[in-house]
Predict the 3D structure of the following.
Amino acid sequence: MFDFANPPLDGTQTESESEDEVLHDIQRVSSEIREHEPNGCLSPEPQRVERSGSEMCFASVKFLGDLSDEDGQDPSAHVHIAEAVDYIIAFTDTILSWERVPEESFTAITLLFSPSFLARLFGLRNVFRGLAANALAPNNANIIVICWADELVVKLCACILHLATNGRMQDVHKVSGIQSIKAMQDNEARRSATQLPVDFDGLADLLSSKDASPATTRMAITMLYGTHVLREQYQNSISREIDGRLTASISKHIGKYGAANTSPATVYPSALAEHAMAASLYVHCSSRINNPLDAPFSPHHEHILVNLINSILDHCSNGLISESYSSGPLVMLLNDLGIMRWFWERWGDGSTSVASTALQLTRLWIQEYTQLEGKQHQTRFDVLWTAAPCSFQAILHVVDAPSMAPVGLLNEVVMVECICDAYIQLAKRIAPNDLRYRDILAEACKKICPYILIPDNNEHAENMRGLIVELLIAVGPETLKSAYGDATAVEFRWNNRGIVEQVLQTIAGMITHSSDGGPDVQAIWTERQTLRMKHLLDMLVVFLHAKTCAASAIVASTTFMATLIPWASRQPDSSRPVTDATQWKLLRASALMVLGLACSHFRICCSVLTKKFPEFDLDAFVNTILDSDSLALLEICQSSMRMYACGDLDD
């Protein structure tokens, strides 16, 4: 007899039993049900070994999945079936108490929602309902039979909602928070389960039926969603098999929403959850039938689908800030990476009718994905890469011009920080000068770079500026020339200097502000202010090195070099804004690099600087650095570049 105390392993354990032994135990489960010893007793029970709830559930699901209808009708097997069901129910109760699913339970969850097991569950449901009906007296013919399989279906629906909404929803029929009617809602759920089709495959046909009750339809959608959408979030491979009837039925079902009242007085989260599940099912079905994305017209039900998602966004406007029941439908959308990919691919360059919805959904996804990852261990970039290049084109529209107002600035900075990191990884992933992504990365630089100027009032701003400099380095000179013009081109563009001019003004303002008390009185900078100056100077270095038109603003400025050089020439015994010697050397090295690259790439810079500064002033600047007691290697390199560019080396 199959031993529930020592079930077959589910692939997550490391016991010494071989895989062949495990498979052999599973294969003989069904036949052993009818095997008895000569005295009518079951075979001796081996020594019990403690197993986890997921292991027991895995073994129980395997046991029930291998039962035939004849096995289910055998009275001697009922006690073992009841024991298996108890283990599964116990595991579902455990799921409903989890805030985050442990990885060792993924295999059991995947098997629990598999089409093969659910098909067998519906088969056993018919067997036991038949046994119960035959046991009833003839005068009780109108009694509704609810068996253990119906109860298990209700439990599975609750688990599907719980997992899909990160614990925010469990009751498929809940319409209010009144606890006094919870018993009525539970009974309604069981009655709805009895109205489900005889076969599991019949759930698809139920969606397009005009006679099914809303509660039963909602339960059918929940079961199909758990099988075809949620289950994929807990397994590495994605099944490409889909029932053609489901594709047609879900399209008809979505069409029914178009005839319903689109703005009812009261919208319940359970109804919005149904909308989210229907949308996910449609997207997953359409992605498997190779529906062309460049078709001149989209099906009408896709317009209805977008309206359904809009209704979810409207009623969950607070995002995931609240852990309440009402935010569950939005979590279902953001958890379904198929939905996100579908919108990015449909959206494209933002010119289609889904642009507004996709923009809002993408913004929420970027903000909240750190709370959602963990099921497939995919990073934000992993998800974007699966839908590239459409996804990276789409998130460009999320980046707006930076707001200097403190209200909401932190959230804006955090979002740009995430987007910037994604583009850095993209630049490192693709081949150098990949033309498919050059325009996208160039546009990303133009949209993200202005954020380097935002006020320095939080640690995220500091980290974001470092990421912006890293992005400019990662994309390479050719992409920067595409974004800001090529200084060596015949058509020299002077209209790309805005961002550099603003950086120059910011640097000059920081230097001037630190010297407000006089030339020998310097306000001491904080470490954050010092790092901000370093990032701003490094940005100028990158623009100069790439020979962009934007860098010409450094040469054209009449005040920048006149402000920077005397400031960087201060002796150690003078009052400086940076007291730490190491940090001061880093700033001075960046200033040297700006000067050297400007003279190297823009020959006019040498003559311009000579007019602004007597030659001995520039020499004094370099000599000041060379005469330092502990000259850093970086400063030596920068000084050499400057002297070589200006022709200061003796023959």
In short: Residues 9-44, 631-636, 642-651 have pLDDT under 50 and may be disordered. The two ends are 96 Å apart (CA to CA). The longest helix spans residues 75-95. The CA atoms of residues 462 and 528 lie 7 Å apart.
